[in-house]
Amino acid sequence: MRRLVPSALIAALALGAPAHAQPANALPPGDGREIMTAVCTQCHALTVIISMRDGPVGWKRHVYHMILRGAPLTPHDADTLLDYLDKNFGPGQRLPPPKSIALPDGPGKELVETRCTLCHDLERVTATRRTMSDWNGTVANMFARFGLSAPDDERAITAYLTAHFGRD
Asked: Which DSSP category does 79 fall into?
């Protein structure tokens, strides 16, 4: 199959990556590293991508959403990138050292600390202000991505995040 993103284009894109992008050697070795460096950093800093932890379904959503937005990936490159992301940045993979952030006390705090930090650092959780409806959708989406069904935990996490990190 003819490659839509030839090696020369990948190299050119890597050289023209935004100034905030990290070098490829900041990433674990693997078949998708060069694709991630060349394609993803056209719009995103690597720190944003590597701080995420998603499962295969979630990564596929992200990648295909980016393709719809213009990311220059062939089906083969997309599959390679998805394998790389899942292997290196999936749930349970080691996150970069976390910043020391203490959550406010309240019902649901322990669930946020145990559930949300499987994939996100607390800085990402606490830096976001959302409405109750937005938090509800976000939490439900996270549980769905990993095939979890725990409605009481979802409600408790949503209530906690809304109370401490909500907006009108």
From this structure: H
3-state secondary structure of 139: helix
Neighbours of 103 (CB within 10 A): 18
Alpha carbon 29 to its chain's center = 19
Phi, psi (deg, nearest 5) at residue 156 = -65, -45
Residue 155 belongs to a domain = yes
Q: pLDDT of 80-99, one tens digit each?
A: 999 999 888 887 776 555 55
Residue among 34, 111, 42, 141 nearest 80 (CA): 34
- Domain containing residue 161: CATH number: 1.10.760
pLDDT tens digits, residue range 24-42?
446 788 899 889 888 887 7
- Kindly state whether residues 11 and 82 are assigned to the same domain: yes
Structural domain span for residue 154: 109-165
Whether residue 46 contacts residue 22, with contact meaning beta carbons closer than 8 Å, is answered with: yes
